[in-house]
Amino acid sequence: MKVRVRYAPSPTGLLHIGNARTAIFNYLYAKSHDGDFIIRIEDTDIKRNVVGGEQSQLSNLSWLGLDWDESPDKGGAYGPYRQLERLDLYKEYALKLLEMGYAYKEYKEGSTKFAIRFRVPENKEYVFNDLVRGTLRFQSKEVEDWIMVKDNGIPTYNFAVVIDDHLMAITHVLRGEEHITNTPKQMMVYEAFGWDIPTFGHMTIIVNEKKKKLSKRDHSIVQFIQQYRELGYLPEALLNFIALLGWSPSINQEILSLEEIIQNFDSSRLSKAPAMFDVQKLAYINKEYIKKMSHEDFVELCTPHLEKANIDVANKEWVSDLCSLLHDRTVYGAQIVELHHEFFHQAFVVEDEAIEFLKQEPNALNVIKAFKEGLTQSDFSANAIKDLIKEVGKGLEVKGKSLFMPCRIATTGILHGPDLPKSLSLLGKELVLDRIEKTLELMENF
Ligand code: GLU
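^ thats the input. predicted complex w/ glutamic acid below
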């Protein structure tokens, strides 16, 4: 039988990390079994629907790199794919359950309107083999007769979901663990109709570093995909990170392309323990993906963030130099702005280790003076600065550390940093000469 799975969001807000994970695991399950991945919009809780909610779900899922076989926007043989467009179907099946005696009407006092309740069988045990948790058991006496259709004619989730999953030929239901206790109710409906019950798999919760369930009000963690998109995270990296929330491949590798994740995906490796949202790990993964980007792509990623921060990007060469200087240190696109500010506006301080170096280097003063001399004449291109350092070395017969370190320390205050000629070219003549002056003053007191 062909595997068919679905992601069934309610369009009640932006795509949350937890929902994205559900969608991703369903997608991976489908892809690794040559199956179909379906998106169904569960919009029957009308009061909670938000305008643009469906669009936000779909556009953020495709930004993450997912695609699907059937959905409200694509259509398909099992449509419609929005529950509010399927009300006639629910009505038809609710009437059948009434006729068969599995359900009964409950009239609103003094009204002709009625809700429909499912009649929960007595003394029955509901057992299912959860893909993640193994065998789970529920007793019918723990469940009271539950509302299938409200008195406004709209079905509740537990009823509509069964009708849809059955009619859409869904074979596997992977969803969040908050739905475990709904499962016996849904099994009752399958059994009443004599339908095959799909395989269920309930994924564990996601917790923060304090082991508390992620709540949408927890502002220590960015939780909506849209926000990551706006911050300049890379979709491949975010997908990679989310796929590791509650799943691990058997190979010892964390940076995985979507292809590699699909190849290695094995639902028996879905974790039973809560998945910890490790902010550092996300930063690490995103940084790795950013490092692998081409220079051009990185410039393209950063430019809108610089613009948004009112940093002039008209000079393409300047932007390109800035980006190449900061590329290795950038964790996410918007961070380029912080790094830019740090680079240009940080107060100039010569660090202790650098002072020690200057004190014990006999050539330091001469190198710095000659370097300063040359810089006053320089056009300040990175190449000119590079040549100048060589010239200074030749003139004074100094090379290696004895040459480069004094130049670096006098202009940046630190022993290690990014490419020096490029950095100085970006900082500009005035600032660099001012720093050298400060260093020389400092050295007078040695
Ligand atoms: N609309 C439900 C939710 O968003 C779907 C649950 C399910 O997958 O059955 O939680």
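The pocket of glutamic acid is lined by residues 8-10, 42, 161, 175, 179 (CB under 6 Å).
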